[in-house]
Structures are given as structure tokens and as C-alpha cells.
Design a protein that fits this description.
- The chain has one domain: Rossmann fold (3-Layer(aba) Sandwich), CATH 3.40.50.
- The chain contains eight helices and five strands.
- It has helices spanning 13-29, 41-46, 58-61, 91-100, 113-126, 163-173, 193-196, 199-203; strands spanning 81-85, 105-110, 131-135, 148-154, 174-183.
- Strands 3-2-1-4-5 form a five-stranded parallel β-sheet.
- Strand 2, helix 5 (113-126) and strand 3 form a beta-alpha-beta unit.
- The chain starts with 12 loop residues before the first helix and ends with a helix.
């Protein structure tokens, strides 16, 4: 049963999620389009991504739409279990998979089927067997408590109205002593009620 929630922003969350899926499906299927945010390998290189980026297939990186570099907060260690929250076409997950090595595990989740299909294809091209991609929403993660050593995320949490639910879930699935490596957009001033109702501001 589908559920439409209102989360203190006076916006239909169901409509918002549909628009986000539409936007990022376009990033997946039409990566050459001019979006209002930067995309692609050149953008990831400008963000000073680690050298592992060079091994990530173009099929993933052409749809990269991150806002910063979560690996600037530190490299991942071999053997770590990693959750990539909002993995998109898989660029960050495939960088992470190289860092954690064969004894580690990366799980990418995304709510956009077109992105997930692209990420799985890229993992196959790269031969990455220590990474999986699942369809899920950040507010209700399909994992047991204390599953992950690290959560990475790039430009995703800002798209979700119920941030309390997201961080509650991240706290739940992180093991004691685990860490967050999040790159995201923040604002310094309050947003007007009209701005909070503007779907285009949420999705771009």
C-alpha cells in the first residue's frame, strides 16, 4: 500500500519522490543533457576524487551527479562493510569497492530503477563482485541493526524532507564506532514557506 506523508514542509512527499525519480532517471538515460547541476567524470575529477575513479567504467561516471567528495573525509579500510546511501549510477560504490577489497562489502541503495540498472551494469563491466545494488528508500532501510562500518552518501540527504528519519536509520544500521562520510548541500538561512513548497528547488 502506498503512503503519502506530510513532513513539516507542506509538500506532498509522494509527488516529490516521483519528481526526484524523474530527474535522476534522466541523468541516467540522458547523461549528455545540460542539467542545472554538474555531472560526469570531469566534475568528479574537479572534486579531486581518489585514483580509484580511473577504474570506474564510463557507463557509471557519465551519470555521476554528486555534490562533493565523501572520500576527502578519509579512505575506506580493507575489509570494511559500507553502505552507499543514494548510490545513483554507482560511481561512489565502485570507488569504495576497490578500497575495501575482496574481504570488504559495499551495498548501494537507490530509489531510481534506471540508476540501479546502470550501476549493476557498471559493476559487471568492472568485474566488481563485492558490491550489490538494492532498491530502497533512506527512511526505511532493509538492513539489520549494526550492519555497516561506514555510510557514505553524496548529494542525497538534502533531497529528503524527513531527515530525522534518515539519520535515525543510519544510526541504527551503523555498528558502534562506525562513521558517516557525507557530502551534501546545506543552507545558511531559513527557507520561506513558498520555497519549501517548490518541487523544482527540492529536485535540483
Amino acid at each position: 500500500m502506498s503512503e503519502v506523508m506530510a513532513v513539516d514542509v507542506d509538500i506532498d512527499v509522494g509527488v516529490l519522490k516521483a519528481e526526484i525519480k524523474k530527474t535522476y532517471s534522466s541523468v541516467s538515460t540522458e547523461p549528455g543533457t545540460d542539467f542545472i547541476f554538474p555531472t560526469g567524470r570531469g566534475w568528479a575529477e574537479d572534486l579531486e576524487y581518489p585514483p580509484e575513479l580511473a577504474n570506474v567504467p564510463d557507463v557509471a561516471v557519465e551519470s555521476f551527479a554528486g555534490v562533493a567528495n565523501p572520500f576527502s573525509l578519509g579512505r575506506l579500510a580493507e575489509g570494511e562493510r559500507v553502505l552507499d546511501l543514494g548510490s545513483g549510477a554507482g560511481t561512489d560504490s565502485l570507488v569504495a569497492a576497490q578500497m575495501v577489497g575482496p574481504d570488504g562489502k559495499v551495498t548501494g541503495i537507490d530509489m531510481t530503477p534506471a540508476m540501479l540498472e546502470k550501476a549493476r551494469g557498471a559493476a559487471g563491466v568492472m568485474g566488481a563482485t563485492n558490491v550489490d545494488f538494492l532498491e530502497s528508500e533512506a527512511e526505511r532501510l532493509p538492513f539489520a541493526d549494526e550492519t555497516f562500518d561506514v555510510v557514505i552518501s553524496n548529494g542525497v540527504i538534502d533531497l529528503i524532507p524527513d531527515k530525522d528519519a534518515v539519520f535515525s536509520e543510519l544510526h541504527r544500521v551503523l555498528r558502534p564506532g562506525g562513521r558517516l562520510q557525507i557530502a551534501d548541500v546545506t543552507i545558511q538561512n531559513p527557507v520561506s514557506a513558498e520555497g519549501r513548497r517548490n518541487i523544482d528547488l527540492w529536485t535540483g
